[in-house]
Every structure is written in C-alpha cells, then in structure tokens.
Amino acid sequence: MTRLLTVLMIMAGLSVPAAAQDAAANEGAAATEAAPDAAPEEDEEEEEEEEAGGEAAATYDAQGKFDYGFSGIMARDNRTDLAPLTLASGSPVAGDEYTLKSGGFYRIAINADGSQELALSGGDFFRSIWINEIVINDIEIRPMGVHSIEFDNAGTAVISFVAITPGRYTLSIPGSSGESQQAVFNIQ
User: Fold this and answer.
1) How many CB atoms lie within 10 A of CB 3?
2) Is residue 102 within 8 Å of 188, Cβ to Cβ?
3) CB atoms inside a 10 Å sphere around CB 87
4) What is the pLDDT of residues 143-175, one digit of tens each?
5) Neighbours of 26 (CB within 10 A)
6) How far apart are CA 42 and CA 47, in angstroms?
C-alpha cells in the first residue's frame, strides 16, 4: 500500500509541471486568437521547428562576441608572453611597467640567479588575476591562491594567468623600498 501511495505521489508531482506548461500554452493560444495578425509568420516558423525536431530548443549563442576558438581563452594563440622578471641581488626586478587587458591570457617567467634568497610578494596582484598554473622545474601547480613566491636557489617559475580586476598592482621584494625592486602591473 505504501509503495502504491509513493508511486501515485510521484506521478502527481511529475504532472504538475506538465499542467503548468499546458496552461501557459493555452494562455499563449488565447493571446494569439485575440490578436490574430500579431506576427503570424513567426508562429508558423516555430510550429515547423517543433514538428521537425520535437521541441524547439533555446540556444544562447555568444559566438560573435567571444570567438576564442576550440580551447577558448586559454588557447596558446590567445596567450601573450610578458618580459621576464629577474630576482638578483642589486638588479631591477622589471625593466618597465606592464600594461595588461582585463580578460587577457598572459604568461610570465620569474628568473632567480641564486645570488640571494629573494621573494616576490603581492597579495593584491594575485587576487586581481586568475592563476591557471605555476610551473617550476616541469612541475605544474594549479593553486587556489598565492601571496608570494620565494626562491632559495637559482631557478625559474613560470606563471600563466588571466588578468581580471582593473587597477594598478605591484609585485615587490619584501622589505625593500626602491622602485627598481618592484614590478608594476596596470590592468585595464
């Protein structure tokens, strides 16, 4: 008896959306009958589509606006390689300021010569981008968030990311105050 009741309740629940659709269709038919010359061509096209393919499926095609190709924004041909950052004792971190576009896919290498234990810190910058991956010695890291990157020895880290939030951000060597000891990123 319980199973029978359960089946009946499920069937009643499933029929409610169908009844609501039927009611909406009846209201639409009544509105069409009330205004018979209100775009009859469109109704005929919709009926033909419904007959041909069952239900007319709604598609939201943004191809013209975002035509990035098969791999989307992360495709290699959409990626821009930026000039590398340098971590070396007494050397400037970057040659000039970087100008990035919000929504652009970028890759930047950070090279450390091992002359001193150095780090780059910039929580605001890392929160304004989406990091795809950080590659260190052919090891790919896909972090949820980063605050700083520190090098104890010589090496290279490559960060690929998408710039998100417009603004002016810096990556700097902690404890230093010189302008040459930071990299400035302007996201437009």
Assistant:
1) 7
2) yes
3) 26
4) 988 999 999 999 999 999 999 999 999 999 998
5) 10
6) 9
